[in-house]
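Hey, quick one: can you model this chain's 3D structure?
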Amino acid sequence: MTIEEIYHDYLNFLREFTAFKSISTDPSFATDIANTARWLQDQLAANGFKTEFITGYDNPLVVGSYIVDPKLKTILIYGHYDVQPPYAKASEGQARMIEEDLWKAEGWENDPFVLTEKNGRLVARGAVDNKGQIALHLTTVFELIKQKKLNYNIKFLIEGNEETGSPNLRHFIEDHADLLSCDSVLISDGEIASGHPVIEVGFRGVINTAITLTTSDRDLHSGLYGGSVPNAARELMKLIEKLYQGTTTIAIDDFYDDVIAPTKEELKNHASFPFSIEHHHRVTGTKKLFSENSLDFYTQTGLRPSIEITGFESGYNGVGFKNAVPHTASAKLNIRIVPNQDPKKTVKQFEAFVKNNTPSYATVTLQLGQGCKPIRINPKSELATKAAKLLTQEFNKKVLYKYCAATIPIVIDFKEILGVSQVLLPFGNEDCNMHGANENFEIDLIKKDIGVAWGLLS
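Sure thing. Here's the predicted structure for all 458 residues.
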């Protein structure tokens, strides 16, 4: 079977896969989540896999095992079937908007759950993160089985809570280490860089937190009381602004105590990456690139910590105007930490900062998500070395060894519990708009990825 024929099977598979509204961040989609997991189990079973549908660890997990020969090495391939919501939750002023209005307002050109081909790309929610990438491994393995060319025993672990931080996945791995036993782990859940293939060698850790600040027990008339009472929105803005010193440096006491400066080797490695500021602006839609002490983009995002405001809500945001001073304001923050920083210590530092910088006339409550440690990965394992050779052949370009700015929570769990080598092999295009509107996967890139996956597992 040719690459084109495998791509045709892949396209049909992905069309069905992306039609499921498997949004894990919203409990109202629980039925869609369950249906997606059952569908995956059926696909694995139909291709000869022994399957497990596992509950009790948040959303259902699907595990599939195909043994070619007990003497062969076993690769565990991980992915997730849950996706980010394609639009923000309807606010009071949007309460009567139908779903189509919501995704159009977010910037989608077509229904996010109908796979669309446009300008050489497949567009849908999950097209890259992560349905498109795990589907690539699934359809390639299915064809290798049919042709009796699969040269490894294969296990799939596909979960439904990655977008919520996989809060109980570690417990599952601890409880089912025998079920997941393998010689190495393969994960594709990221992007290539400047057209070059990538093997990821590290990830930042993550902590999500929500702050709610209150100044009264009610909103107050802005004409009668404006200028004389504290405004919760303004007070929270002032508190958040104190987090930063300049554009990139975090002002929390002792925050950088455990941050290790990039080594000369790491700086040299990242400096060798092709990078165009014009390309960066096109990919991000921004007009400015910030960095500490003129660090390159990949070092700044891969090896330096950050805190980003990911949501802010206060006052009235509906149709028209409501002239009232808000008494409460909420913000969501995403904290990224780097190797040698500890999530628990970082949380304590953050809590102390908030306590010390909240004015006496306001109260603050914090909601903390589960933290995930940062990690470094050995890029010289047997499977990683094989992957690097195949990437070079397929792309005819240098393979980049990249510290990834994002986080895949399960990577640290695999390291600490299974203790096997891992290969982080991102397949997505750099401008895929992961988590954004019109998420997409380049078709030409998909075909190269199929060639790499085929060579790696045959």
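One thing worth noting: Residues 205-259+305-368 form a domain with the Alpha-Beta Plaits fold (CATH 3.30.70.360).
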